[in-house]
User: Fold this.
Amino acid sequence: MKKKFIIIVSYIIIFINYNVYSNENNSILKVGLLAPLSGEYKELGNSLLYSLQLALDEIGNNKVIIVPRDSGFNNSEKLQNAIQDLKSQDVKVVIGPINNEEFKDVKKYNDLIFISPSNISPEFTDNIISMGVSLESQLKSLFNFLKKQKRKKTIIMFPKNQYTELIEKKLKSFNLENFQTFKYDPNPQILTGEIETLTNYSQRKKNLELRKKLLEDKDDDQSIREMEKLEQLYTLGKVNFDSVIIIDFGNNLKSVLTSLVYTDVNQNDVLFTTVNQWFDESIFYENTIKNLYYPSINYKEFKKYNENYFKKFKIYPNEITILAYDALGLIYYAWKKNGKINSANDFIFKSKIKGKIGTFSLENKMVNQDLDIYKTGKNKFIKF
Assistant:
C-alpha cells in the first residue's frame, strides 16, 4: 500500500512547487472574510483579519486579495448584507462565518464556498467546510492513546446542557467498547454529589473507618504499621474505572477535576484526559491536578505563530485565528493546484495537508486532524 504523500502547506513552498498548476496570468484570487469587525466581538474579528494579513505576507503573491466585511455576531441581517457585498465584489470563497449558528443563513448561497473556523462538524455541509478541531478528531486521538496505555475501563463524562444530545450523537458514531458515559450537572454544588456517587465515595470512606476500627486495639508491629498508613488515607478501595475523558472546558472542567480529586480518585491509577484545550496555562494553577492529558494542535507551531503575530502587531492573537491562517493557506493551495475554485469538491485531496495546526486530511468530504497528545505537568505542556 502506497504511503500517503504529505503536502506541506508552507505557502512559499506551495507558490514554487505548484506554479505549474495555474497560469500566472490567471484571475486574481479574492478571499472574503466574514467576521464581527464591530460591536462586542470586534477584537476577535480584528484578530482574524490580522491573521490573514500574516498569512498573506508569507504567501507573497499580490494576486491574492482579502475582502473583509463586518458580519456582526448572530446578526442575520448584517450577515446577509455582508454576503451580498462580497458577491458584488466577485468573491467566490469566504473565510467564515465563525459561529455555526449562522450556517443556516449561508447555506442558500450555493454559488459561494464558506470555510469556517467552527468545529461543529468535520463533514462538508453543502457549501460549508468547518476547519475547527472537531470533537471527532479529538476523541479518535484519545481512544488511540488510551488503547496504547492499555486502559480498559474508561468513563466519558460530559455536562447536561444544550450540547448533550450532540455529544451523544457523536459518540454513537464510534464503535465503543470498554467505555461508559456519565452525564453531570454543571452546577458545582450538585456536581460534587454526583461525582461522589460515581466514585462510590461514601462506601470507600466507610471501608477506611471500618478497617481502622478493626486495628485500633491491636498493638502488634504489623497492625501498627498498617494503621500508620491508613492515617494518611481519606478512603479505602479503588474506583471501578481506570481512565476518564472529560468533554468540557474552562471553569466547568476545573470543577470536575477538583471533584474527582476531592473524592480521592488516585491519579496514579486513573488517567485524567480532556478535550477543547488551547494550551490554557491557567490549568497550571490547579494544584490538585498532577497530570492532565489531551489532544491538541502542534504546540511548537502554535507558539511560533503567536510569536510572529505579536512581533508584527504587538498583541497576541485569539487562539482560533490560527485556523483562519491555515484556511487561507488551504484556499491558496487549492487555487494554485486547480487553477480555479468552483465548489467544495475543489478542496478534496487524496494527500494529507500540513498546516500550522498540524497534519490534516480532506477526504470523502470530511476534515480529519491528526492531533498530538500533550500532558500538563510542572507548569509545562509536554508532548507525550
User: Anything to note?
Assistant: The CA atoms of residues 300 and 356 lie 9 Å apart. The longest strand covers residues 29-35. The domain at 136-199+239-296 is CATH 3.40.50.2300 (Rossmann fold).
